[in-house]
UniProtKB/TrEMBL annotation:
Pfam families: HATPase_c_2. GO terms for molecular function: protein serine/threonine kinase activity. It comes from the Bacteria. This is Histidine kinase-like ATPase domain-containing protein. It comes from Actinacidiphila glaucinigra. Keywords: Kinase, Serine/threonine-protein kinase, Transferase. The keyword GTP-binding does not apply.
């Protein structure tokens, strides 16, 4: 008998500073429901950084967040928005004193893997956390 992963959780979110706390709570609650609360701090950090980039660069704050429990592989979080512009980490080491330019460096440090892929109507930025 094989154990199936819980179904994915998907939600429409608005990438605006006033709504970020609501998204953080939703991510934490979903991971707690899956028994994956150990991954919540990294997941919340990564999702927050991705949403900050959507807010600054995507042109529309509306996006979709999906969470998948990958069993032994960890948890996957993905944010899809309508901008075709792919994020690129700032060159060189992160300037930790700068106001901007650290988000993708933080994601790379917190996630086991991360990436971006074009979609028919924009892009998806994803992270896998272990």
């Amino acid at each position: 008998m094989t154990q199936e992963s819980p179904p994915a959780a998907a939600m429409r979110v608005v990438a605006e500073p006033a709504r970020i706390a609501e998204v953080r709570r939703a991510v934490s609650e979903q991971l707690r429901a899956w028994g994956r609360e150990d991954l919540a701090p990294a997941a919340v950090l990564c999702v927050t950084e991705i949403l900050a980039n959507v807010h600054r660069h995507a042109g529309s704050p509306e996006c979709e967040l999906t969470l998948d429990d990958l069993a032994a592989e960890g948890v996957r979080a993905a944010v899809s928005d309508r901008s075709p512009v792919l994020p690129v980490p700032a060159p060189g080491p992160a300037d930790w004193a700068a106001e901007r330019g650290r988000g993708l460096h933080l994601i790379a440090a917190a996630a086991h893997r991360w990436g971006v892929r074009p979609t028919p109507d924009g892009k998806q930025v994803w992270v896998v956390l272990r």
